[in-house]
Amino acid sequence: MEELKLDWDVKRFEVGEVEGIPLTKEICEKWHKIWAFQAKPDDLLIATYAKAGTTWTQEIVDMIQCDGDIEKCQRASTYDRQPFIEWVLHKNWPTGLDKAEAMPSPRTLKTHLPYYESALALSPLANNGLFSLLCPPQVIYVARNAKDNLVSFYHFHRMNQMMPEPGTWEEFFQKYMDGKVLWGSWYDHVKGWWEAKNKYRILYLFYEDIKENPRCEIQKILNFLEKDLEKEVLDKIIHYTQFEVMKNNPMANYTFLPPEILDHSISPFMRKGTVGDWKNHFTVAQNEKFDAEYKKNMAGTSLTFRMEL
């Protein structure tokens, strides 16, 4: 990422809506441009709900594309290598869309946008518009269990001085339960992409599976991308995408952003990377409430998650 020399007038983003989905007002203001974004036939889209292993997946994919060449993967930050298409970081800084449009093909792009054909009144079969991006030849979606996702998202709000004010843990817990956080309901997000995989070329992965058996899950990505790498290269990718290794990688750990934006003294961007940390945050009452809501929202879907390993 280019050296940051801007006078960062950092304020927490306010929340607006696009078709009922909470997004920052900055994204809402740019929505007409985001809507008009054109996908290319050789684009690869990495889609996730926020804090579901996005950066992890981005690094795995980049290492695969670079045949395990560490120096190539250190060429720039994750933010620059794989543009976050809807994100507006700062009014004086190129948007994710700007970065994507300036990038030569083949492009790997990132989004947290939900897959809502009905709620957004969009068709993924459209010949133009953003959601033509949702059916390029290749989409990798990664989902994380809701409880750990909630905890990670809360701590991210605390340390990211541009994210909306999280409030107390209790307040954020309820907002998440109500789908009133950025990018909307976790339930709608994971279920929407789960259903879409039956219609389009989408590899749907689970954070917990990657954590438990990275070799197996990375092999799935290799097969999906029709890449064939030697065992030694795969071993190298597994090593360099371990949490503790990535946590010390300045091109992946977001320490390239100034503390005025991401305050790692409050909570590091890459915090724990574990499964089951929710047990250190949920009270018994919160867990019972969450489980009841979870059972209701997940009824009728074949999608299942593991809350612990």
Automatic annotation (TrEMBL):
One GO process term, biological-process aspect: xenobiotic metabolic process
InterPro entries, per the entry: P-loop_NTPase, Sulfotransferase_dom
Example of a GO cellular component annotation carried by this entry: cytoplasm
Main location, first listed in the record: cytoplasm
Alphabetized Gene3D superfamilies for the sequence: P-loop containing nucleotide triphosphate hydrolases
Domain Sulfotransferase as annotated: residue spans: 41-301
Keywords of this entry: Cytoplasm, Transferase
GO molecular function: 3'-phosphoadenosine 5'-phosphosulfate binding; alcohol sulfotransferase activity; aryl sulfotransferase activity
Subcellular location: Cytoplasm
Enzyme Commission code(s) on record: 2.8.2.-
Pfam families in the cross-refs: Sulfotransfer_1
Similarity comment: Belongs to the sulfotransferase 1 family.
This protein's name: Sulfotransferase
Organism field: Podarcis muralis
Lineage summary: Eukaryota, Metazoa, Chordata, Craniata, Vertebrata
